[in-house]
Amino acid sequence: MRRRTLLAAAVVVIALGAAGYWISNSRTESAGTDLLPVDTPPGIMLQPLGLAQGYGDGRPGTIRKDPGGTQLAYADTAGKTLYTYDKDIEPGKPACAGDCAKSWPAALAPPDAKPTADWSMVDGADGNNRQWAYRGKPLYSFTGDARIGDAKGNNAADGAWHIVLAEPVIAAPSGLAVQEVLDAEGFALVDGRGMTLYAFDGKGGEEPSCSGDPCVRRWLPVKAGAVANAIGDFSPVVRADGITQWAYKGKALYTFVGDTGPLDANGADVDRKWHVMLVSRHFMPTEVRVRGSLANGRILTDTAGMTIYRRDAFRQEVGIHGLAHGTLGLPAFGRMIGTRGCDTDCLRNWRPVKAPANAQPSGYWDVATRDDGTRQWVYKGYALYTYAGDKAPGDMNGNDIYDYLIHDGVNALPDIPPDLKQVGAGALYWAFAAP
Fold first, then answer.
1. Do residues 334 and 381 touch, judged by C-beta distance below 8 A?
2. Which residues touch 128 (CB under 8 Å, ≥6 apart)?
3. pLDDT per residue over 173-187, tens digit each?
4. 221: cis peptide before it, omega within 30°?
5. What is the pTM of this model?
6. For 63, phi and psi rounded to 5 degrees?
7. Secondary structure letter of residue 182 according to DSSP
8. Where are the alpha helices (DSSP H) in 207-330?
9. Pairwise CA distance, residues 121 & 207, whole Å
10. What is the per-residue pLDDT for 407?
11. pLDDT single digits (tens) 81-112
């Protein structure tokens, strides 16, 4: 094993130093987002389907190429995709029992599960267990799904079975939509270009005029047609300057000039009176925060503001890691590495992000149990750590530290799964964790 740190990346990080973060200090940047429902209760996960997991095409030594349009589905704690059944017609009475249930096991809710906005429990077909239901429809997994992210049961039995996709559906005007904005930790409103939409969250009747500096230079109104009509929770409002603007649930909508591309959420770090217009928010552990980094976009930190990292496998297709949002992680690779990616020697410098004893998987978050019995947070398949070499909030000195692997059967790291050797992973490296 040979170790090397990429010096060019380290120089950039050192230059940022403790001033590397924007003004974000909380999990959610305004009070408005705290009132939204979490889109997954404890025990329900979010899993990308198919190639987006990072699996290859079935041949040894292959990895995923272009995942195409990634679909996101709800899954149980084992990562098994969840389905609904067309024959579940009578409310609260699952129709899949007996031989059906052998292939389609009920998705069981834990004893302490509580109903939320879209999630409830029904008595299982056996009458003994509580089964998850989504928007009133009982949920099942499929025994034919061998791997996390499989969806082989979709449209089975002459189209009677359906994947439960994680995509909020709301009535919206033409040109506006709902998309997952990871930097905002949830599903948010976007315009026709995919740009994130914001609302003002002033208190005591305070409203932005956006008719003078600096507001007019930062926040651009989402214009509606002069004869636009209300639809669902959207309504047109006429501003003092005569522009007709869309509002959602009474809040006027804006884009932020500091968002350089679709699904950016840089405006969340500028002013606490402005927030991303979320429709629902993702689960986030109380031990973790999302903060803005000057060079790297939004990143995960602990409550003290220290950068959180994941350990990934370097592959030939990986690009530059230090850019905004880093490199796309692949959940299958994170699971291959697991907690074995940081052994006793590694733990001298890398500290697991600990999960409490009562932590449960939810959304993108899972919990791993280390060999010593401690529990560790896992995000999108990757175990999470902080770095002893970071001395102050904003430091990112652990980014792009490499352990090169020698696959000669003797000098290779002993705890690296054979799967990584098959796909040609030449090194393990540390990268900051992004939402």
1. yes
2. none
3. 999 999 999 889 999
4. no
5. 0.85
6. -130, 175
7. G
8. 215-218
9. 41
10. 52
11. 999 999 999 888 899 999 999 999 999 998 88
**Residues near 111 by beta carbon (within 8 Å), at least 6 away in sequence:** 130
CB contact at 8 A, 176 and 266: no
For residues 407 and 425, what is the distance between their CA atoms, to the nearest angstrom? 10
Distances (CA, A) of 254 to 136, 197, 208, 221, 270: 34, 5, 11, 4, 14
Domain coordinates in residue numbering, the chain:
2-26+287-432, 40-167, 169-281
Q: Contact 396/432 with Cβ under 8 angstroms?
A: yes
Handedness of CA 294, 365, 199, 237 (dihedral sign): positive
161, 142 Cβ separation under 8 angstroms: yes
- Strand ranges in 151-266 using DSSP code E only, listed in sequence order: 161-163, 177-181, 186-190, 198-200, 219-221, 234-238, 244-248, 251-252, 254-256
Rounded-to-10 torsion of CA 223, 228, 233, 237 = 60
State how far the Cα of 3 lies from the Cα of 402, in Å rounded to an integer: 6
User: Which residue blocks in 172-282 are alpha helix, DSSP H?
Assistant: 215-218
Task: Assess contact for 398 and 307: CB atoms under 8 A.
Answer: yes
| DSSP-based helix, strand, coil % in the chain, nearest 5 | 15, 30, 55
Helix/strand/coil (H/E/C) assignment for every residue in 331-396: HHHHHHHHHHHCCCCHHHCEEECECCCCCCCEECEEEEECCCCCEEEEECCEEEEEECCCCCCCCC
Q: What's the number of CA atoms in the CB half-sphere (13 Å) around residue 334?
A: 25
How far is Cα 96 from Cα 138, in angstroms, rounded to an integer? 9
| Structural contact between residues 200 and 268, judged by C-beta atoms closer than 8 angstroms | no
**Average pLDDT per consecutive 10 residues, the chain (435 residues; last block may be shorter):** 33 30 39 69 92 64 47 94 95 90 94 88 79 95 93 93 91 94 93 94 62 76 90 92 90 92 86 89 94 80 96 66 67 88 91 96 96 96 97 93 63 53 68 92
Cβ–Cβ under 8 Å, residues 370 and 352: yes
- Report the sign of the C-alpha dihedral through residues 205, 211, 212, 215, in that order: positive
Report DSSP letters for 40-83, one per residue: S-TT-EEEE-GGGG---SSSTT-------S--EEEE-TT-PBPE
Contact of 236 with 229, CB cutoff 8 Å: yes
- Residue 153 DSSP SS3: coil
- CA 189 → CA 263, 278, 348, distances in Å? 10, 6, 43
Q: What is the pLDDT of residue 169?
A: 83
CA distance 322 to 315: 16
